[in-house]
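Reviewer comment 2.1 asked that we show a complete input and output for one of the modelled complexes. We chose the pyridoxine-5'-phosphate case, as it is the one discussed in the main text.
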Amino acid sequence: MKKLGVNIDHVATLRQARGVAYPSVIEAARICETAGASGITIHLREDRRHIQDADVYELKKTLTTKMNLELAATDAMTEIALKVRPEQVCLVPEKREELTTEGGLDVVSHFDQVAKCARLLSSAGCEVSLFIDADQDQVTASVNAGAQAIEIHTGHYADCLNGSEEQLAALDKIKKICHWAKITYPKLIINAGHGLTRQNVQAIAQIPEIHELNIGHAIVADAVFVGLKDAVKGFINLIYPE
Ligand code: PXP
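Response of the prediction step:
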């Protein structure tokens, strides 16, 4: 069965917007795990715009599933991961000015640095995943760099108009790369994520070679509407007690 890793970065975004202690990422992770998430994904960005170092250490103590820690492929971030020792580390590209992770990691161009991080992390017992575009050269470079897993960036597919020719072409490209990667590297774990919503997730979830999906922004966004009614009722009950 496909697994769902829930990315809780944007629970932290909400907290950081006010610089307060709520909403708690620990509680968010607990709810996601209770609801059936197979793992919790967090991205410790170099600019610390959402998840903070203390969150990573606290979550490592409290998670009952697994931690998938997303990091830039730098020596400093690898050092943090070596201290935390999450079950999984996903190396991602990072630009300070971007709104979110735009495009996959260019493993071909940054092979030596990625391979160095992957080697250190693997020897510490972390499963190493590389967040890459749907491209054969990137898959091969990932395997040669020592990754046990890849995560295919679905952002371009997700940005296309639902049902458009462009989206079908993007989907076809993802399907073909997953199929090719599984045949060429049978042991490689293939995950996917970025930009997935209730409207576009099913076609990706049906790709047989995909092991795990990582979804964050749309789940946190949906949670606002799923929970808004009860949140307002809760305040009304406190303001006008019977
Ligand atoms: N996978 C990776 C590697 C990511 O960097 C992100 C975003 O941090 C996601 C999945 C989740 O993307 P989204 O928040 O758009 O669902």
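Residues 7, 9, 43, 70, 90, 92, 100-101, 131, 151, 193-196, 214-218 surround pyridoxine-5'-phosphate (CB under 6 Å). We note this here for comparison with the apo prediction described in Section 3.2.
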